[in-house]
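Record now logged underneath.
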Amino acid sequence: DEFKDPIIAEAETDASGFYRIAVPAGEYFVKTFVHPNRGFINSEEKLIQIADKEIKTIQLKLRKADLNITGKIFVDETPVTNAFVWGWSSKGGYQETFSDPEGNYQLNVTADDIWKIAAAQEINGAFYKSSEVAVHVDQNNITIDIYLSKLIDLPTSVSQNTDATKPTV
């Protein structure tokens, strides 16, 4: 019942960081999202209750990463270049990156949290992905290698030029 009939509302902040979201009375999880390339991590998610006609002010504080999860991405023993690597935390954080030419990656994360990380890449017409790995981050940087497994062969792409004035199938 917790996620029955969910309401998803969003707003962008103005230049001063203010936002306004109108919702009916109820219980809500409030969180931020900021793209990882901005150098911040989302605020911790907050659970709030709003009564009918109530106006509530909630301050959400973006966080700076204080630690790193680093490692290499592999298929068998071969490093994987340009693999997409992502991580999300139990406290609402999200980070993403790509592996370098030697397969190395670095996710900037927050301490005292559980981060779930994974990676994926298309290799020679097949889609490879890792399982999510739960990483308990305390007060130290962590090194963990990620291994990709082949999930499926991808269909070959098809390109076709057509006259826009005629039907095409």
Q: What stands out?
A: Residues 79 and 103 are 5 Å apart (CA to CA).
